[in-house]
Amino acid sequence: AAGQPAGAAVPAISPAPSSSAAQLTILYGSQTGNAKGVAQNFQAQAEAAGYNSKLVSMADYKPRQLKSETHVVVFVSTHGEGDAPDDAAELHEFLGGKKAPKLQGLKYAVLGLGDSSYEFFCQTGKDFDERLGKLGAAAVVPRQDCDVDYETDAKVWGEKLIEALKTDFASAASGPDLVAQPGASFQAVAGQVYSKKSPFKASLIESQKITGRDSVKDISHIEISLEDSGIQYQPGDALGVWFLNSAKLVADLLALVELDGSQTVTVGEQELSLEEALTRKLELTLSYPNFIKAYQAATGSESLAALMEDKATLRTYMAERQIIDIVRDHPGTITAQQLVDALRPLNPRLYSIASSQAEVEEEVHLTVAHVDYQAFGSRHQGGASGFLCEYLQEGGEVEVFVEHNDNFRLPADPQTPVIMVGPGTGIAPFRAFMQEREAQGAEGKNWLFFGNPNFTQDFLYQVEWQAYVKSGLLTNISLAFSRDQADKIYVQHRLVEHGKEVFEWLEQGAHFYVCGDAMHMAKDVEAALLSIIQEHGGKSEEDAKAYLLALRKAKRYQKDVY
Ligand code: 2AM
């Protein structure tokens, strides 16, 4: 099934009549039909030998499926200047790209078709061979490059390959060599549960700014690989992200307090250098009263003592300041251990997941607002968002875990309509919802309310929504670009405008979801919803509240707000 981690089902379910867990997947990429013909002939040879096989055009093949294959045979032609046929292009590119999975355990063979009068003879076949090999797959027999008179060469090569596969395909399902099947490495870790305390060391696939150059916002789309973790998440879940404080911030702080970062300090039970403690273990990108207290006690700062007198002033003072600002404003002498003890342990940040495994399998996507502002004479960045959006390099390590959230779930029934309100980064879980519903072939109606400052700069995932509208998956999309006109237009205004229809959907059993800002947006949306229920349901304020409460109890009104 889609979304199953590779290998999970390989040895477990094996209905193969040959009583072998091995499956020969024959892939062809064919511009004119020659490669397809050769592939069909080979399948006939394989079937005659009693091998369990399937023949698939590369155009119909989901690249990530490769992870769950045991044996793949590629038949592919080459055109022009070494170009892949159109139907092979995606897989060809995928295998050479940064999203390509490790394929240790996969056995493969490649037959290329081409014309030796061209410089890039059989180039695409060569590429497949090289790329599969690089990903860790093992060639069963050497690649065959076939010229224009390919028939005999192809037939002889096919026989050789069938012979070489004999042991794999004749062995019983319970045979000992099953242990060496792909998926074994996955199974070794399948029992492991990753958590906040014991996160998975994932790697960054990509981090891409998705707001425009002139946007007032800075939002990035982040893709993280969960390959070989066995991690499963549901749309609605959040990803916990451990982050490092930036080297620049740590260096600046060390310079301010005039401490040597290489000296040893103790954090919890652990001994490590001050620099490492500040980088990995302690919160620097927030400010909190306990730090102010402890820092004041250590330094004896009088200015800070004065500030602490008045709670309201202190709160305003702390609002945009980070630890470094407080230290800069109130210089004093402090020891390395005192500094460490004054600081709060670093906590991971949670992000609503923006993908469904039915679509992205062993990846997880996030939509991250990069906190990045100029204040008090220097640049300030969010801890986790700065790490994800700026410092973490492609391929770099990021420790993550899934935080399950059963209070933000798609309806169990795919027929149930869904209303989603997600301005700004609140859009994230709804991208996951739509990926999931598409994969399910869910027939229920879907309505998205999205808002952001400007249409040209901030229409997050615009292309995806438009495709969903076109395909009919997204029944309605209502947009509120707040700053494209003199008066602010917000998602709740759109809700009210469409109040009659929104209420009809609710009466049809729709689930209503809100994600994003808790302080203002979610409250205003709830007020709008209440007014809609009153007006279009002909209810008193009290009855409308009861109606909403009933929705909430039935888990038809769910919020993921922060
Ligand atoms: P603004 O920044 O132009 O005021 C995502 O942040 C979107 O939510 C922005 O378009 C923002 O508009 C808007 N927004 C701000 N306050 C809001 C509120 N109380 N309710 C709904 N949307 C709001």
Question: Mind sketching the topology for me?
Answer:
Elements: E1 24-29, H1 34-48, E2 53-57, E3 71-77, H2 89-96, E4 107-113, H3 123-134, E5 138-139, E6 144-146, H4 151-164, H5 166-170, H6 184-190, E7 200-209, E8 219-225, E9 238-241, H7 247-257, E10 264-267, E11 270-273, H8 274-280, H9 289-299, H10 302-308, H11 311-318, H12 323-329, H13 336-342, E12 349-352, H14 357-360, E13 363-369, E14 372-375, E15 378-381, H15 383-391, E16 397-403, E17 418-421, H16 428-440, E18 446-452, H17 455-458, H18 462-471, E19 476-481, H19 491-497, H20 499-507, E20 511-516, H21 521-537, H22 541-553, E21 557-561
Parallel strand pairs: 1-2, 1-3, 3-4, 4-5, 4-6, 17-18, 17-20, 18-19, 20-21
Antiparallel strand pairs: 7-8, 7-16, 8-13, 9-12, 9-16, 10-11, 14-15
The protein binds adenosine-2'-monophosphate (2AM).
Model description:
This protein has 562 residues and is α/β, with parallel strands linked by helices. 36% of the residues lie in helices and 20% in strands. The strands form five sheets. Strands 1, 2, 3, 4, 5 and 6 form a six-stranded parallel sheet that branches. It has a six-stranded antiparallel sheet with strand order 12-9-16-7-8-13, covered by helices on one side. A five-stranded parallel sheet has the order 19-18-17-20-21, with helices on both faces. Helix 1 packs parallel to helix 4 (151-164), helix 9 runs antiparallel to helix 13 and helix 19 runs parallel beside helix 21 (521-537). Bound molecules: adenosine-2'-monophosphate. Adenosine-2'-monophosphate binds at residues 423-424, 451-453, 482-483, 488, 490-492, 520-521, 524. Residues 423-424, 451-453, 482-483, 488, 490-492, 520-521, 524 line the site of adenosine-2'-monophosphate.
